[in-house]
Amino acid sequence: MADLPNTTEDLTPDTFVRGLWRENPVFVMLLGMCPVLAVTNSTVNAIAMGLATTFVLVCSSLLVSLLRHWIPKQVRIASYIVIIATFVTIVDYGIQAISLELYAALGAFIQLIVVNCVILGRAEAYASKQRLHTTLVNSLGMGFGFTLALLALGTVREILGSGSILGMPLFGESFQPWVVMILPPGGFFVLGTWLLLFNWLRLRRERRVLEQAGVAANAG
What we know:
The chain starts with 12 loop residues before the first helix and ends with a helix. It contains 8 helices and 2 strands, in the order αααααααββα. It has one domain. A hairpin with a 2-residue loop joins strand 1 and strand 2.
């Protein structure tokens, strides 16, 4: 059995919410950048990749948490990769069965979910140390946070680059699409804009906290 330290945490709303905002995999921790930039040229692709990654993240984290006392620490990374690869294979065949067009659009990035740092990182840093129900809630929060980030990029890029959303036209025939937005440079541009927004919101929140602390200290 693996000798793990007692670092389990209690289940709170923050267990789920922090993956959406404070520890967002994309906008805060900058993980999984390859699929974020490569497949977010449309909303459908972004949603599909986000849900596929969430499925693998949740299922692999649950299995790692369930087997955490039985996986020897010397082979834990290799064991995690085997577990993750198993669920990636399920997703790979599942997407092929659902839509060959979507499978072709996502390409090799479905298989590359195996090496997504979000999934392996949660397995090593969280699931291997936490109880099953806490791991479930936390992995769902991280997965939804990753999906929301991809959706934010995919929506902006599709609207500006194709003049549509979910394949439905939004503007008239006079609209001239910004083709650069569905190309790799557009992905970097949109990602950088979202990162600027998140950093501005974070700094504003920290400034407000400091101001409130200063007011409380003066009042005391």
